[in-house]
């Protein structure tokens, strides 16, 4: 077996190896390391290079003599195989990254989509798409549909919106126009003061059963994949099990899974969700296959405790699985251009076992993953990096969604008149319900006030566009 130096023992995760389908580099938080000395940079860069040479999916493409005097972020960028890799990234504070993966961040408690206000001006607006329970935003009276125009008394424009959006991690003020959906208009402008907090978000946002004729339709809004509020907790997955136990006991005949705001997370939770939905899936059925570079894959295959079987993960056998109850063995997924990574993994993994019917926009397109690497208890190196290390496949060896999954019903969902989530008039839900029941339920405002989409708050999250593949035992192979 190939021996990995003892330095890897200090470098890799102390609790678990975390694999990520991480966000584009354009969306990451820029580290501030302008005061670091050349010696300090070289210390960090030696660690970066050693790990990249082993883990990176394209490790044979790393430059032979990279300049190790560069700042760590620039050095990391210089190693990337950019013709294939637009996803690997690095962050100066690894603890903030780990917190974010579990849904913890300092924030006001609202998510939004950014639009250009009009083609005739350069103004940018942010429409709130959901408010987090018991958050400062909820306490301030904000709600889904409200349109933000100013942050800290500055009008958002094409030239300043990124700077203004970057400031809302601290206390801030908003000027906004409340959506009066029943009155079919926006109210006069109001002001809200938001005091940010360290907020722990629960991904199980809402669930309900909608009855229509002989249909009982389970509707589940799931906003990111996380096992629990900490890496050792299963609270969120346990809650998910309870949701599906409720769906099963109520005898649902159809299921609508709302992943439009879900840009990824834990593979363990993705497996949990898919195992609760898939028709006829048990622990005997393949959920996921992994492909690494030759060095990593050889380590796994040649290890007696792991072997080739370790490259495959199976579904779990779940008592609360609802797959056998679903008409035509069909799952309806509500998606957006920010539905990514772990969400796409669920779609891809279920396709061999059932019909997955997608309503909304083409998904993001992320079929590769990266490993989270950092050094603990090293005051000279607080960096964490996510180099791409793995490509994922389903049981039919399919991994052909690098450009996203194209929906069965295309609707980019960019009207400013949006109903509450779970309201049968809500745009994407109403389209799914019409497919299920044959009856139109949509609100008549869905085609009004369509705007040019610019971006989403999901783009700014460290957990965004991630797939944290369950790889705890890989330490037995890599770390000696």
Automatic annotation (TrEMBL):
Keywords: Signal. Coiled coil: none annotated. PANTHER family: CARBOXY-TERMINAL PROCESSING PROTEASE CTPA, TAIL-SPECIFIC PROTEASE. It comes from the Bacteria. The keyword Signal applies. Residues 1-24 form the signal peptide. Pfam families: PDZ_6, Pept_S41_N, Peptidase_S41. It comes from Ohtaekwangia kribbensis. InterPro entries: ClpP/crotonase-like_dom_sf (IPR029045), PDZ_6 (IPR041489), PDZ_sf (IPR036034), Pept_S41_N (IPR041613), Tail-specific_protease (IPR005151). Residues 44-89 form the Peptidase S41 N-terminal domain. Residues 216-372 form the Tail specific protease domain. This is S41 family peptidase. Residues 128-175 form the PDZ domain.
């Amino acid at each position: 077996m190939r021996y990995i130096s003892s330095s890897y023992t200090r470098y890799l995760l102390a609790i678990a190896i975390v694999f990520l389908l991480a966000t584009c580099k354009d969306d990451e938080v820029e580290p501030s390391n302008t005061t670091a000395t050349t010696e300090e940079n070289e210390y960090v860069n030696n660690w970066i290079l050693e790990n990249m040479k082993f883990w990176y999916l394209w490790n044979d493409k790393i430059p032979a003599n990279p300049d190790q005097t560069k700042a760590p972020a620039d050095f990391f960028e210089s190693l990337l195989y950019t013709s294939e890799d637009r996803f690997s990234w690095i962050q100066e504070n690894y603890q903030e990254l780990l917190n974010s993966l579990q849904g913890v961040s300092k924030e006001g408690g609202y998510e939004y989509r950014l639009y250009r206000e009009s083609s005739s001006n350069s103004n940018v607006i942010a429409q709130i798409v959901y408010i987090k329970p018991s958050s400062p935003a909820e306490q301030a009276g904000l709600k889904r549909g409200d349109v933000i125009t100013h942050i800290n008394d500055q009008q958002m424009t094409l030239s300043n919106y990124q700077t203004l959006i970057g400031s809302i991690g601290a206390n801030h003020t908003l000027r906004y126009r409340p959506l009066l959906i029943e009155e079919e208009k926006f109210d006069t402008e109001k002001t809200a003061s938001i005091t940010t907090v360290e907020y722990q978000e629960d991904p199980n946002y809402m669930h309900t059963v909608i009855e229509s004729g002989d249909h009982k339709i389970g509707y589940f809004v799931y906003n990111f994949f996380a096992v629990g509020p900490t890496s050792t907790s299963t609270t969120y997955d346990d809650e998910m099990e309870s949701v599906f136990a409720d769906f099963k006991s109520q005898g649902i005949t159809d299921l609508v899974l709302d992943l439009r705001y879900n840009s990824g997370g834990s593979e363990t939770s993705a497996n949990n969700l898919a195992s609760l939905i898939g028709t006829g899936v048990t622990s005997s059925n393949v959920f996921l296959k992994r492909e690494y570079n030759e060095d990593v894959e050889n380590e796994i295959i040649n290890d007696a405790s792991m072997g080739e079987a370790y490259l495959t993960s199976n579904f779990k056998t779940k008592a609360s699985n609802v797959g056998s109850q679903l008409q035509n063995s069909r799952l309806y997924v509500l998606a957006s251009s920010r539905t990514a990574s772990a969400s796409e993994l669920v779609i891809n993994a279920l396709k061999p076992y059932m019909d997955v019917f997608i309503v909304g926009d083409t998904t993001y397109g992320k079929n590769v993953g990266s490993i989270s690497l950092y050094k603990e208890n090293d005051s000279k190196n607080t960096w964490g990096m996510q180099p791409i290390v793995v490509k994922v496949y389903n049981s039919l060896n399919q991994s052909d969604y690098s450009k996203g999954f194209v929906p069965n019903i295309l609707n980019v969902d960019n009207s400013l008149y949006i109903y509450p989530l779970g309201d049968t008039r809500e745009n994407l839900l109403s389209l799914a319900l019409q497919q299920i029941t044959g009856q139109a339920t949509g609100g008549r405002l869905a085609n009004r006030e369509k705007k040019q989409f610019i971006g989403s708050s999901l783009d700014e999250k460290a957990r965004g566009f991630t797939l944290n593949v369950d790889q705890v035992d890989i330490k037995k192979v890599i770390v000696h």
